[in-house]
Each structure stands twice: as C-alpha cells, then as structure tokens.
C-alpha cells in the first residue's frame, strides 16, 4: 500500500506542472518563459541535491566523454518535450494537455526499434534491436481512444487552427520525451542515478533554453515576478518532489513486477489532480460527460498497459532464470 501511496503523491505534485502552466498562461505570461524558467530553476535545485550527494565530479567526467551526444539528446528529451507542452497550454486546458501527454506511452512502444537490448544466446551476449510490442499496443489504442474523445469535445469550442496548435505540439512532446531520455540512458550506460542524469541533461539542454529565452526577450519582454516564482514552483514540485516520491515508490517494491506495475499505474492520476486543480484554483469549466469518459478511458488504458508490460517483463525474467538453471 505504501508504494502506491507514494506514487499517488508523486502524481499529485506532478499535476502542478499543468495547473501552474495554465495559470501563467491565463495571467498573460508567455509560454516561452514558462518553459525556460522551469529549467533554470531545475538546475539550481538539482545542483544542490547532487552536491550534497557528492556526485557532481563523477557526473562531469561522464558528460565530458561524449558532450555532443549529451547536448543533442538532452535538447530533444527536455527541450522538444517541454517547450511544445507549454505552447499547447495556450490553446487547451492543463488537464487536457496532461491527458494528451499520455500518448508518450504509445510512442514509447513505437520507438522500440531505435534502441538495442542485450540478450543471452548460446554464443554469448548479443546486442539486438528491440521489437515493437504489438500485443501491448492494443492497450495503447484504448489510450488513443480516450484522447480522441476529449479532443472531439474540445474541438467544438475552438477553430481548426487552435485544435492543431493544441494537439501537434503534444505529439512532438510525447515523442521527444521517451526518445531523448532513453538515448541519454544509453549514453550514460547506467552509471548515473536519476538525479545526476537529470541534472546532466538539464545542464546540457541549457543552450536550448538560453536561445529560447533570448527569443522571448525580444518578442515578449521580461517575465513577471509572478511567472518567475510559479516557474520555480513547477521545478520544485514536479522536477524534484514528484521525482523523489515516484522513485521512492519504485525502491519500496524492490523489483516485484506486479507491485511495480501498480506504482506506474498511479501516474495518470495526475490528469485527475490537474483537472481538480483547475476547477478549484482557476475556476475552469466543468468538463462534459464525453470529456470525463475520455479521461477515464485514458487512465484505464494506462493501467492496463502498465500491468501488461510488467507481466511480460516478469515472464522474460523467469525464462532467463530457468535457462541459467539448466546450464
């Protein structure tokens, strides 16, 4: 029960990303500063944590091995993930952005052939391309169906152009996040813990954020003090507290696949928290029954996908153990 509770608490703090981004947009703040300032704050918070852990020097050594890869994949994994998300918030409620972002699960499966896994064969360890888990894609279709239901309802109140501006950037975001993060995990080779890797990626993505900020300075002017503070809150709540809670939850399950699936299935609860947050704090309109059906369909799809994925992982683990015992 405790791991699931930690997971739900993590989803609660992650929801502040969507609530505060929407709040900044409604208050007249630019999406450019909402995106950039969040990562400037993140560097500060994570730098303190990594310094306390005495892991800054090892991180710097690993980053110097392949600096261009760090720069490229971090800009994709963080830059092309978060900037489009903030852009979409100008055209859709935060809860809808949160729900649409669940597409990352679908694209995460479709991107599998771009990555390699090590498998044990009679001839030794071989590195082969991952395969698309077609069985798991059936649950991904449930997620997509829920997103379509919500977007259909949202499309009634906006123009076709606004619908594209709300949706296309989220597709980019949902692809960039798993692509950039998985590539960086390959580059770091499992030598870094979560905080060190995220700090490294944040530092490596700074050129992206500095260029975006420069563009914002000339087109939008300086951000307000309110937007600066709220961006810092997003960095603290989503970038630090939510991360700590979620990984504390995964540590508690100690590799038990069913419990791990239960923890991962708590993440779409952030959609509900984002929706409730907008209703209470931003006086947002109550979603229609069709939108509610879409939200619940997305959550159901994510839960089923999580348990199906962990069941497959557990089966593969047992087969490998059986093979070892035979040898």
TrEMBL record:
KW Membrane (keyword) present: yes
A Pfam family hit: EmrE
The protein's name: Multidrug resistance efflux transporter family protein
Keyword Metal-binding found: no
InterPro entries: EmrE (IPR032713)
Entry keywords, A to Z: Membrane, Transmembrane, Transmembrane helix
Membrane-crossing residue ranges in chain numbering: 5-24, 30-50, 70-91, 97-120, 132-152, 158-177, 198-218, 230-249, 261-283, 289-308
